[in-house]
Task: inverse folding
């Protein structure tokens, strides 16, 4: 019998984020926003990737130093619960990416998708061969907004115009989450069995 964890609560998200930011975790490990993007790519991708394969990618090298076996179990449980929340949201056509919040010079807050998009592309690269049909096709443009930001696109001068317009920027952020759902639909369409006319 397979155990499926309940989706993570907001309080548990804060607990997981605190752990990922703690000194127990190597600095190069993924942040919560990066992990959210990474798990989203795995959830919408062409193949099921087992946790035994993707967990090492989360730590980006050596894993954290855990205080006890109970802490190992708790942290892994929280990560799997986050994964369950992402999968459940995607099944309901709802995606709420956990973008970072950046405080601007005027003390205003700006949602920044850089880390999330970088994490998403890490998920793509984990199974690059399986993603090739999309990457090599015209539909590969579905990935463009995510790949552009992952590659530092938000720093480009031409992006400043989008960022300076709250409406345009919000639309761009929506485009990123919409792209992930469109990618999910692309793979779902490819996995459908071929039909040969009406069989009456």
Result:
């Amino acid at each position: 019998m397979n155990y499926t964890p309940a989706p993570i609560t907001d309080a548990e998200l804060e607990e997981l984020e605190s752990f990922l930011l703690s000194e127990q975790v190597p600095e190069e490990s993924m942040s919560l926003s990066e992990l959210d993007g990474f798990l989203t790519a795995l959830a919408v991708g062409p193949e099921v990737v087992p946790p035994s394969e993707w967990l090492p990618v989360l730590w980006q090298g050596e894993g954290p130093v855990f205080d006890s076996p109970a802490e190992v179990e708790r942290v892994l449980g929280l990560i799997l619960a986050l994964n369950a929340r992402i999968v459940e949201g995607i099944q309901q056509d709802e995606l709420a990416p956990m973008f970072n919040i950046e405080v601007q010079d005027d003390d205003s807050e700006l949602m920044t998708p850089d880390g999330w998009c970088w994490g998403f592309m890490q998920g793509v690269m984990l199974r690059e061969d399986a993603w090739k049909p999309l990457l090599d096709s015209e539909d590969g443009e579905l990935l463009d907004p995510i790949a552009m930001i992952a590659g530092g696109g938000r720093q480009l001068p031409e992006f400043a115009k989008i960022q300076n317009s709250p409406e345009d920027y919000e639309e761009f952020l929506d485009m990123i989450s919409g792209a992930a759902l469109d990618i999910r639909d692309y793979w779902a369409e490819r996995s459908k069995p071929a039909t040969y006319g009406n069989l009456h």
